[in-house]
Amino acid sequence: xxxxxxxxxxxxxxxxxxxxxxxxxxxxxxxxxxxxxxxxxxxxxxxxxxxxxxxxxxxxxxxxxxxxxxxxxxxxxxxxxxxxxxxxxxxxxxxxxxxxxxxxxxxxxxxxxxxxxxxxxxxxxxxxxxxxxxxxxxxxxxxxxxxxxxxxxxxxxxxxxxxxxxxxxxxxxxxxxxxxxxxxxxxxxxxxxxxxxxxxxxxxxxxxxxxxxxxxxxxxxxxxxxxxxxxxxxxxxxxxxxxxxxxxxxxxxxxxxxxxxxxxxxxxxxxxxxxxxxxxxxxxxxxxxxxxxxxxxxxxxxxxxxxxxxxxxxxxxxxxxxxxxxxxxxxxxxxxxxxxxxxxxxxxxxxxxxxxxxxxxxxxxxxxxxxxxxxxxxxxxxxxxxxxxxxxxxxxxxxxxxxxxxxxxxxxxxxxxxxxxxxxxxxxxxxxxxxxxxxxxxxxxxxxxxxxxxxxxxxxxxxxxxxxxxxxxxxxxxxxxxxxxxxxxxxxxxxxxxxxxxxxxxxxxxxxxxxxxxxxxxxxxxxxxxxxxxxxxxxxxxxxxxxxxxxxxxxxxxxxxxxxxxxxxxxxxxxxxx
Length: 578
Fold this sequence. Notes:
7-stranded parallel sheet; 36% helix; 18 helices; 20 strands
């Protein structure tokens, strides 16, 4: 059997009866019986891998006998480590459940000499455990041309000077005032910031680098930024990449590839992350915060802030940042509490093991009246029921597989888009607008030829309400924007990759249904168009405990207690969802 890390390594090496790609998929012209790719084979039937990857990442991140520091490299990078364990466990699962290896069998593996060493470690352990012979063929990979260094942009140079400006806080008695640090996406946390200021709290924003927009919005309210970058030379670094015990998947040892991954991570990011620890510790020691608010607690800066806040006696609270379609960004919970949109999200987190007592039904502060009171725009009879809006997500990457249950790969992402255009092409007069994700490039929708037979209009606008008002039907792939559209009353069809699980149950989230095939999509579109714009009170109540400023007030209650008498009044008008 031959194994290739990726298709670019198959040149002049094909010919075996059985061949496996570890990353990516075979071109359609080369697909045949006996050729597998992990991307296609390891789907939602192997959803147990997601839970096991989380467990192994937690075990790796625990302090070991050589280190008593809870804030170690593995813990800080636990989110990336979960995805790395998915890569390892997909291989182990394939050779256990799909194509077992027998004693005496020869395996020939083709790897890149730059970056694939961990694959060699794992396959060596697997071959040893099964009594097989392993032959590793290393191929040189061309170095990627590094971009020439450029001088800082003028606005960045201006920002470097602006961060040194200080605006005095509003005159108020600050003795004993709550001291709250915010860290995360302003779109999610801005309403909470405003609510805290209205209650007389002192508020700071914590950023890795100076954020101009945040500074411009809040500086005159006395809100400063705590910035963690520095012009000083970096000297610190992690000395203990991992001090844990040996890791096994049944008879296959995972210790060596994990140690190698952490060693590479320490070399690339260890010094930078050790500086983050120093900066955040310095900020918190000076400010003595009483609470920390985050949009998630899985990425390095948020993990560091959460741990150090706890050391300083501050309460840490996460605000739900998006649709709970994968456990890696939500569970296990590192912060003290999480404020979720509603009962549907709470049920999902409980299913992932988050203790019920640490989940607070607060609502969605980032969704407002404009969207919840939206009505579809007027249309002429000729264009009626023909305007479709696709809410595109961030395209997947071959080198980092997504959660196994979601099963979003480069190949089935392209197939999903092809399925959509193929079905819409059969609807007379259908027009498609694609709203790109803020972090997605147009190239993520495939090459221009991909859309040649069905022209589309690409939108980068952040005005979701404006785009929704001109749509008859919305298509979404397990996205937050899709849930917003459903709450606004639009008929939303969820597109899911082939082989995915029920990651965001349509009935729970107010969606018309989920489509993985052209047949399912062709059935759902007439149903969605016939239903039209309609708000379901029961569904909205299950998804949304509250919204806007009232949701922000609930979160503030968790952080600093009920509002005082001087607090500005909150508009209590409820938008009807009936």
